[in-house]
């Protein structure tokens, strides 16, 4: 039979895993819904976001400016995170997840893309945050034909 201390450690681990999964979702929701407070809340103040071999953003201000630039470029973005696994070691953790993203170009064409994120997380002041996120195995597909995007009502031909 498990002791109270063992159960408490297991509960802490479950809570940490749930918080880290929520963090991954808040990253996507913040980006997709242009919610800067939510977006900023997922990062440590000195975080590093590597989106490509020649695109590294260091610090919260640079990371927020980078997503703002994406918002200015893409009228609509939609991220989906899957296969999120984490390894927790006290107040630090590492993780890996896959992401699929659809972005609309200014001419209303769409690009499907994504990749895998390798993450480092830190626990501070009662919250988990992303300290380092690196995109590995990125992919983009050729632009798709124009479409109105989410909320579009398509009539079904008779």
Description:
It holds the Pfam family SnoaL_4. Residues 12-134 form the SnoaL-like domain. This is SnoaL-like domain-containing protein. It comes from Dactylosporangium maewongense. The chain has 158 residues and is an alpha+beta fold. Helices cover 31% and strands 44% of the residues. It is built from three helices and six strands. A six-stranded mixed beta sheet has the order 2-1-6-5-4-3.
Notable traits:
about 160 residues; alpha+beta; Nuclear Transport Factor 2, Chain: A; 6-stranded mixed β-sheet; 6 strands; about 30% helix
* Helix content bin: 25-40%
CATH domain class name: Alpha Beta
Taken from the alpha-carbon principal axes, the silhouette is: elongated
Tell me which CATH architecture applies here.
Roll
Q: Please tell me the total number of domains.
A: 1
Report mean pLDDT, rounded to a whole number: 90
Ends: how far apart? 65 Å
Assembly classification: single chain
Provide a count of the helices.
Answer: 3
Q: How do the helices and strands follow one another from N- to C-terminus?
A: HHEEHEEEE
The major pleated sheet works out as: 6 strands, mixed
Helix/sheet category: alpha+beta
Uncertain runs with pLDDT below 50, 5 residues or more?
Answer: none
- From the alpha-carbon coordinates, what is the Rg to the nearest angstrom? 18 Å
Largest sheet strand order = 2-1-6-5-4-3
Q: What is the CATH topology?
A: Nuclear Transport Factor 2, Chain: A
Strand content: 35-45%
InterPro entries: NTF2-like_dom_sf, SnoaL-like
Protein name: SnoaL-like domain-containing protein
């Amino acid at each position: 039979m498990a002791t109270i201390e063992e159960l408490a450690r297991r509960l802490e681990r479950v809570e940490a895993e749930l918080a880290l999964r929520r963090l991954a979702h808040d990253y996507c929701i913040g980006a997709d819904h242009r919610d800067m407070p939510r977006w900023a809340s997922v990062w440590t103040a000195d975080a590093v976001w590597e989106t490509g071999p020649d695109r590294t953003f260091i610090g919260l201000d640079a990371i927020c400016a980078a997503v703002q630039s994406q918002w200015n470029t893409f009228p609509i973005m939609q991220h989906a995170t899957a296969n999120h696994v984490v390894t927790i070691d006290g107040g630090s953790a590492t993780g890996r997840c896959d992401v699929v993203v659809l972005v609309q170009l200014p001419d209303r064409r769409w690009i499907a893309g994504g990749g895998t994120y390798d993450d480092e997380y830190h626990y501070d002041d009662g919250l988990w945050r992303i300290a380092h996120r690196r995109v590995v195995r990125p992919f983009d597909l050729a632009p798709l034909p124009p479409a109105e995007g989410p909320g579009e009502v398509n009539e079904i031909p008779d």
